[in-house]
Amino acid sequence: MLLIFLSSLFVSFGQMGNLKEVVKLHDNNLVEDTSSNDFLQQAYPSYFDMVDDGSKFKGIINIKESVDILTMEKKVGDQTDSNKLKTINVNDYGAKGDGNDDTEAFLKAWKAACSSKGGASMVVPESNTYLLKPIRFSGPCKSKNIIVQILGTIEASNDLSDYKKDGRHWLIFDRVQGLVISGGGTINGNGKIWWENSCKIDKDKPCKDAPTALTFYNSKNLVVKDLNIQDSQQIHLSFEKCVNVQASNLKITAPEKSPNTDGIHVTRSQNIQISNSVIGTGDDCISIVTGSQNVQATDITCGPGHGISIGSLGAKSSEAYVSGITVNRAKLIGTTNGVRIKTWQGGSGTATNITFENIEMENVANPIIIDQNYCDQHKPCKEQKSAVQVKNVIYKSISGTSATEEAIKFDCSEVSPCQGIVLQDIDLKLEGKEGEEEQVKAVCTNVKVSNIGTVSPQCY
Ligand SMILES: *[C@@H]1O[C@H](CO)[C@@H](O)[C@H](O)[C@H]1NC(C)=O
Q1: Nearest atom of ligand 1 to the alpha carbon of 58
Q2: Contact predicate 388/343, CB 8 Å
Q3: What is an example of a GO molecular function annotated in this UniProt entry (predicted)?
Q4: What CATH code is carried by the domain that includes residue 399?
Q5: pLDDT in tens, 62-112
C-alpha cells in the first residue's frame, strides 16, 4: 500500500507525455538506425520473397498469436486516445548518469512505470551512461503497456561483490506482460572482469556461472528491438519461460575470445521470433535449448562466434524437448560452427521438426553439424546408453565456404540414430579453393540422409 502511494507520488513528479511523442521518438530512432538496413540489403540480395508461414509445423505454431504480437505495438498506440502513457524519465527519479550508481533511481522509476494504470514510457535519456548493479524489474504490473526507451547507455557495475545476491542476472524483467523495450541505446555488460575470471580463460579458476546481461523471465507479449547489447558478463540476451516474443534489430557484440557470451539464448519458451539482427560474440550466436517450441530466427548475421545452435541438450542425463525451430536467411561469417545441433550422451527426449534454410556460409568451420557426442568439460565424457533423439531436420539451400574439410558432420548417437534428415540444394566448398572439385566431405555416422536436388558434399 505504502509502495503504491509512494509510486504514484513519484509519478506525479514525472513528466507527463502522450503517446504521440513516444511514437515519434520511436520513429526517429528507427530512421537513425541505418546499419540494420544496410545489413539486410547486403546479406540477402536474393531472398526477400521467401517467407515461411510455418504451415509445415501445424499444430505447434499458433499463427494467430504471432499475428497478435506483430500488431501489439499498434495496439499500444490505439489505446492512447483514452489512455495516455505517462512518461517516466529516470533522471526525475534521481538518476544522474555520471558514473555513480543509479540502481535505486532505476528501481523507483520502474515501480512508477509498473504501477501506472494507463501505461507508461520509462525513458533512459540519451548521451548519458548509467551505472547499474544487478536489478530485478518485477511484475506483475498494473500497466498493460510499458515502453522502456533506452536512448543512452546502461553499463554494468564491474564490482564482483555487487553480484553476491544473484550471480546469474544483471538486468532481469520478471513476470511482465506487454513490454516494449527499444530506443537505439546501448546495454553494456562490462564483462571483462568476468571473462578474466572464467575457468575457460584461466584453468586455475573454478568454473562458475557469470550473469546474463538482459533476461526476460516468466514473461509474455514482449517486443525487444533497436538495441545494442555488448560485452556481456556471459549470455547477452535470454528468454526464459517466455511466450510471444518479437526480438528484432538487435546488434550484439563481444570479443571473439570472451567465454560463454552467447548472443541470444532461448529456454523453456514458446512463439519466439528473432529477426534482422547482427550478432558477433565469443560463443553461440543464438542458442535454443530445452522446452523451446516454435522459434523462428530470420535474417540473422553471425560472426565471430560458435554459430547458431540447438542445444546443448541432455546434459547430466537430463530430458530435453525442442521442436518447431526454423532458421531462415542467415549469413555466418568465420564462425566455428554453422548450424549445429548438439546433445550430450546420456540424455533423453527429442529435438524435432527443425529447418535450416537459405543460409550462406563464409569461411565457417563445420557449416552443418549434428554432434551427439558433445562434451564441453575438462574431463572426457564417458560412453552412455541413451541420447536425445534427433528427428526431422531439413537443411535446404545452404551454400558457401567451409574452413574445414568436413563441411558436413552428422555424428549421431549409436543408441538412437538420427531420423528424417534431409539435405536439399547444398553447395559447400573449401574456403580459398572454390574453383576445385571434391575438396570437402560429409562425415556421417548413425544416420540415413535423404538428398533432394543438388547436394554437395554427400554422405557415403
Ligand atoms: C512435428 O511435425 C509433425 C508433422 O507436421 C507433427 O505431426 C508432429 O506432431 C510434430 N512434432 C512435435 C514434437 O511438435
Answers
A1: 5
A2: yes
A3: polygalacturonase activity
A4: 2.160.20.10
A5: 334 444 444 555 544 444 433 578 999 999 999 999 999 999 999 999 999
